[in-house]
Amino acid sequence: MNRKFFTFLWPLIWALGLSLSAGTVWANDEAPDAFIKRISNETLEAVRSDKSIKSGDINKIMQLVDTKLMQHVNFRRMTALATGPGWRKATPEQQERLQAEFKLLLIRTYSGALSQISDQTIELKPLRGATDDKNLVVQTEVRGKGEPIQLDYRLEKTPGEGAGWKIFDLNVMGIWLVENYRSQFAKEINAGGVDGLIKSLSDRNKSNAKKA
Questions:
Q1: CB 165 within 8 Å of CB 155
Q2: What is the pTM of this model?
Q3: I need a labelling partner for 49 at 20 to 30 A (CA). Which of 15, 30, 59, 81 fits?
Q4: What does the pLDDT read at residue 115?
Q5: 49 inside domain
Q6: CATH of the domain at 68
Q7: Percentage of the chain exceeding pLDDT 70
Q8: Is residue 19's pLDDT more than 70?
Q9: In what order do the strands lie in the sheet with 175-176?
């Protein structure tokens, strides 16, 4: 598989298995790099041991995302950032549709990549900035066959119930996921408004489902 394919392949691979130790309580003061290291190792182990996930079973992957992933990702913020100014103009119902279609798009687009996980490991780079920052970036490298792959996580520290680090953007080989989709979504919104973007995402998801 070439570098272009990897550009949007790895974010979902590493994100899909977040927090697979159900019921385990982690301290709210867990360091951000320790958080990323933990969930990355759990992801690798989960995918390697689950034949359904490795084969690209979309229902199993959806179940994994809904039950384990969302508690560690601020997906609402991720969708809002990708949508741009159009997000504030969207109704609550439109925002919910956007989140649902965007999540399905990511899952359906990259689910087949899970079968490619084999001997990869993740190496953390030295953390920049104080660990009590509200927003920071944890830089890592995915190592396996071929050249290392840059994979960085943008995190925010959330207060209150469910406090802890949450992911709201990813950088793969110099390309931020949110920024990449923002340019695509802006074109759709300019052409057909928020409903036009929702329809475009829905059509792409239906097309991906037929291909699967």
A1: yes
A2: 0.77
A3: 30
A4: 58
A5: yes
A6: 3.10.450.710
A7: 74
A8: no
A9: 121-124, 135-143, 149-158, 164-172, 175-176
